[in-house]
Amino acid sequence: IPPHTPLLYTLSIPLPNISSTITDEIQDRHFVEHLISPSHIPTTNSSFTNLFHCFHHIRSNKKKMKPFEHFKIWGLLICLISQLGHGYYLPGSYPHKYVVGDQLSVKVNSLTSIETEIPYSYYSLPFCKPQEGVKDSAENLGELLMGDRIENSPYKFKMHTNETEIFLCQTKPLSTDEFKLLTTRIDEMYQVNVILDNLPAIRYTKRDNFLVRWTGYPLGIKVQETYYVFNHLKFTVLVHKYEETNVASVMGTGDAAEVIPTVDKPGSDIPGYIVVGFEVQPCSFQHNKESLKNLKMYGKYPSKITCETNTVTMGIKENEPVAFTYEVEFVESDIKWPSRWDAYLKMDGAKVHWFSILNSLMVVTFLAGIVLVIFLRTVRRDLTHYEELDKEAQAQMNEELSGWKLVVSDVFRVPDYPALLCVMVGDGVQILGMAVVTILFAALGFMSPASRGTLLTGMLFFYMVLGILAGYVAVRMWRTIFSGDHKGWVSVCWKVSCFFPGIAFLILFVLNFLLWGSGSTGAIPFLLFVVLILLWFCVSVPLTLVGGYFGAKAPHIEYPVRTNQIPREIPAQKYPSWLLVLGAGTLPFGTLFIELFFIMSSIWMGRVYYVFGFLFIVLILLVVVCAEVSLVLTYMHLCVEDYKWWWKSFFASGSVALYMFLYSINYLVFDLKSLSGPVSATLYLGYSLFMVLAIMLATGTVGFLSSFWFVHYLFSSVKLD
């Protein structure tokens, strides 16, 4: 939206068909005119400031308006808010206008391979370097943690100017070490990742009459014991004519476009273009040594270079240089700015995702039926029959009780390792909250792939902020277990803030040593480690202590029944209870495993995962299934007079992590068969262990809290002395 444009005034004009209907029903017509008058709208760039002033008008005139009028104005405001998306772009997605002849600079990211999963810097290999020297791009926390190292490159274009046979450089004769390193990277199938205007280069190949999309291009290829390098690149840049943001075009068509004023910006008359696509086609071309003499960077190679993808000619040898050239072609495209990421995010197999959700819904419905039977037929029937008896009959019935009613005086007995249970529940609430909020924001589009690293950065931010919730839940559960005694709550808070982050740091530190030893860009820099530790102890720990303080001040949950001093003996069971607990994890895993395949492929196979809407639905279904599974198992244990339900309810749903780890091993053996080297396998298993631990804490917490509510509700209905 151009500066000094009255937002509410311009947005109210293109609604002639409905404005009369609204204003006819509002008696105070002057107020409406006052509301949308341009004299009352500050001339500022911020549309949000304009809306704030509008909200202020509504609040100040609230007494003058009838309830129905108030509703009408708020409805108008909702329409205005919904239009703000047309005036603002999400971070990392703002279009950049290039005039014909403007310079476009290509950037390079780390070299990646699905063979090793270890990224390396682009300039670790003998490539041409830019004249101004290698410079790192500004990177956020998430990019650094993901191993991205974005640097400038010598590839430069001029907007809408086709160029061919551009000479880049000729390397020095390859030394023995350089030749060995280059051939090793070709054997390991490393990909070169180049970026233009924040778009990764995409490559199309035909396979069995299908067009396959790839990001980046291979470093080289091995044919009959000879190594060939792709030293000539054919770039295709898709551009679209820049369309000046106009309020009339945003709001619609009709006579409104003729009356809405527009503000001209300096240089807006000059035609420009935006980049909407970036494609690369690698070729191996043998240059003429004589033709390379006296050529400088960006000079024109004297002979025609034919880029043939099916032919390789540039074989590399020791003590021989390699020449690099490129060409670029600009093609005008119908693709508009909001759709330029569609080529990367095009979702194949949507039916599979829907099948996953339907599969999960079947499991949820099945378990919900069991829970309904427990509540309506068993629990309600028993309680109703029990309450209808007189006191003498109740006393006689107490002697003949069986099942869950027998453990009424032991069901809230302090569990084993109560501090550890509170700590794990607190960490689980923190992880679950982080997952829900992050996936919700990603599903709404706030974490666009155009902004690299925002997903991981957002996860860290939400995790730290939700330390308040973790401390609160852990301390309040601690006080509930010990009947209101808040002694030791500070110690519980410290354990909550150090348990999961401490294990995570230990795993990452060990894996980081392996990456450091390999010289990989995936290794977390030492300074970043210091920053993470400072965030941990200066932000996360204090917030957890604040949450714990409020948890200590909050009233504890009172038990509905008293606990005997002497514990009741648990009868011998036909089957080990832990066997049932471990088997319960198969049901939550059944709701997750299909979506898990896509997530694993995204992480380890280099595919883009952006179906967060599906993932959010699956997450909600997973939470419901975990709650139902744990609730059913807790009831089954109580029915066989086993009152030690605390830990069993936690691991009944948390055992899904065991099956996820087994699935990770299966994925390593059958889907990542090409993964080479013990370092790569160790990295894979280490990251899988880290992921599984987080899922165990989150799902276990869901199961425990649902079981705690169920047991409290069940025994609060029992009237016993």
Automatic annotation (TrEMBL):
<feature type="transmembrane region" description="Helical">
    <location>
        <begin position="645"/>
        <end position="669"/>
    </location>
</feature>
<feature type="transmembrane region" description="Helical">
    <location>
        <begin position="610"/>
        <end position="633"/>
    </location>
</feature>
<feature type="transmembrane region" description="Helical">
    <location>
        <begin position="354"/>
        <end position="376"/>
    </location>
</feature>
<keyword id="KW-0967">Endosome</keyword>
<feature type="transmembrane region" description="Helical">
    <location>
        <begin position="455"/>
        <end position="475"/>
    </location>
</feature>
<dbReference type="Pfam" id="PF02990">
    <property type="entry name" value="EMP70"/>
</dbReference>
<dbReference type="InterPro" id="IPR004240">
    <property type="entry name" value="EMP70"/>
</dbReference>
<feature type="transmembrane region" description="Helical">
    <location>
        <begin position="578"/>
        <end position="604"/>
    </location>
</feature>
<dbReference type="GO" id="GO:0000139">
    <property type="term" value="C:Golgi membrane"/>
</dbReference>
<comment type="similarity">
    <text>Belongs to the nonaspanin (TM9SF) (TC 9.A.2) family.</text>
</comment>
<keyword id="KW-1133">Transmembrane helix</keyword>
<keyword id="KW-0812">Transmembrane</keyword>
<feature type="transmembrane region" description="Helical">
    <location>
        <begin position="523"/>
        <end position="552"/>
    </location>
</feature>
<dbReference type="GO" id="GO:0072657">
    <property type="term" value="P:protein localization to membrane"/>
</dbReference>
<feature type="transmembrane region" description="Helical">
    <location>
        <begin position="419"/>
        <end position="443"/>
    </location>
</feature>
<dbReference type="GO" id="GO:0010008">
    <property type="term" value="C:endosome membrane"/>
</dbReference>
<protein>
    <recommendedName>
        <fullName>Transmembrane 9 superfamily member</fullName>
    </recommendedName>
</protein>
<feature type="transmembrane region" description="Helical">
    <location>
        <begin position="496"/>
        <end position="517"/>
    </location>
</feature>
<keyword id="KW-0732">Signal</keyword>
<keyword id="KW-0472">Membrane</keyword>
<feature type="transmembrane region" description="Helical">
    <location>
        <begin position="689"/>
        <end position="715"/>
    </location>
</feature>
<keyword id="KW-0333">Golgi apparatus</keyword>
